């Protein structure tokens, strides 16, 4: 083996050693700093998603309860109207007039209560839609960081680390 071949072999092994050293340094940087940051961000996102899902479920339950209340109010209004009609048939004109006034008052109150319940349901539905939109935006942001984008971010970070180490 000539001396030029020896120098070529030394150059090749030098490249192999520097590549292994670089890989080891990258693994150390990943394990030491990047992986904990990624795991913390993932845990934070999972907590936010869990909270949004809990809020959505609570809002759904509230909307369902309000629907039940609306149905109950509608049934009550219908029962009141039927009772008032039955009394109107059985009683004289004076009793009919009093029953009609009472029935209209109750229906007006029920309509007001129904409108308030609808408004509350609209507000809860709006909150639920906002929560869903926020969850979808977070999910879309999470999906937009793919492997290539992640690799570019890691590369930029490493360049920054290398330039900081070179300046120090």
Protein model, in words:
The chain is mainly α. The protein has one domain. The protein has helices spanning 3-90, 93-144, 147-167. Helix 1 runs antiparallel to helix 2. It is rod-shaped. The relative contact order is 0.08. The model has no long low-confidence stretch (mean pLDDT 86).
Distance between the termini: 43 Å
Q: How many helices in DSSP terms?
A: 3
H-E order: HHH
Give me the count of strands. 0
List its salient traits.
168 residues; mainly alpha; 3 helices
Question: What does this entry show, briefly?
Answer:
This protein has 3 helices and no strands.
List the helices and strands and how they pair.
Blueprint: H1 3-90, H2 93-144, H3 147-167
């Amino acid at each position: 083996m000539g001396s030029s071949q020896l120098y070529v072999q030394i150059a090749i092994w030098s490249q192999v050693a520097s590549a292994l050293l670089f890989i080891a340094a990258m693994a150390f940087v990943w394990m030491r700093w990047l992986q904990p940051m990624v795991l913390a961000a993932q845990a934070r996102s999972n907590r936010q998603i869990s909270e949004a899902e809990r809020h959505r479920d609570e809002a759904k339950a509230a909307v369902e309860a309000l629907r039940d209340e609306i149905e109950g109010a509608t049934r009550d209004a219908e029962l009141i109207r039927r009772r008032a009609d039955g009394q109107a048939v059985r009683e004289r004109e004076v009793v009919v007039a009093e029953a009609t006034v009472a029935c209209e008052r109750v229906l007006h109150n029920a309509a007001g209560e129904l409108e308030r319940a609808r408004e509350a349901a609209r507000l809860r539905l709006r909150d639920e839609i906002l929560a869903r939109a926020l969850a979808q935006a977070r999910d879309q942001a999470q999906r937009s960081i793919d492997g290539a984008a992640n690799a570019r971010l890691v590369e930029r970070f490493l360049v920054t680390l290398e330039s900081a180490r070179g300046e120090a």
